[in-house]
From TrEMBL:
Name of this protein: PERIPHERAL-TYPE BENZODIAZEPINE RECEPTOR-ASSOCIATED PROTEIN 1
Superkingdom assignment: Eukaryota
PANTHER family in the record: EXPRESSED PROTEIN-RELATED-RELATED, TRANSMEMBRANE PROTEIN
Keywords: Membrane, Receptor, Transmembrane, Transmembrane helix
Residue intervals passing through the bilayer: 18-36, 48-66, 86-105
Length: 115
């Protein structure tokens, strides 16, 4: 049986090895950037859609929580007749209005998006 050939010294010079290593790092870095850019574009698009429908989700969740027919979390003042007994300022309405103003003022522009 013949002995296995032993690996000899590399046929590349030191400058060729350095150039090959630099090209490999450059190609890997470029591919990493392309993948990162695609992931960030997808995440931005999904977040934009979530911000657009978030007022609707908020209104539906408040209606669902205040209906009292199905699953109900015991929140002080959440019974159906509590709004008529309330004696303070409407903090919930003020919070919703501030949230809507915040969402409208921070709405992303459509000029910078690439479809």
């Amino acid at each position: 049986m013949a002995p296995a050939p032993r690996p000899g010294p590399s046929n590349f010079t030191l400058s060729e090895q350095w150039l090959l290593m630099a090209a490999t790092v450059f190609v890997c870095g470029f591919l990493g950037y392309v993948v990162y850019d695609a992931v960030m574009a997808t995440a931005t698009e999904m977040l934009q859609r979530l911000l657009v429908i978030s007022p609707l989700i908020l209104i539906i969740s408040v209606h669902w929580l205040s209906s009292g027919r199905q699953f109900s979390i015991p929140i002080p003042g959440s019974e159906p007749g509590a709004i008529h007994r309330a004696g303070g300022s409407p903090w919930g309405v003020a919070f919703v209005l501030l949230l809507l103003v915040f969402l409208i003022s921070h709405q992303p522009s459509l000029l910078g998006l690439v479809f």
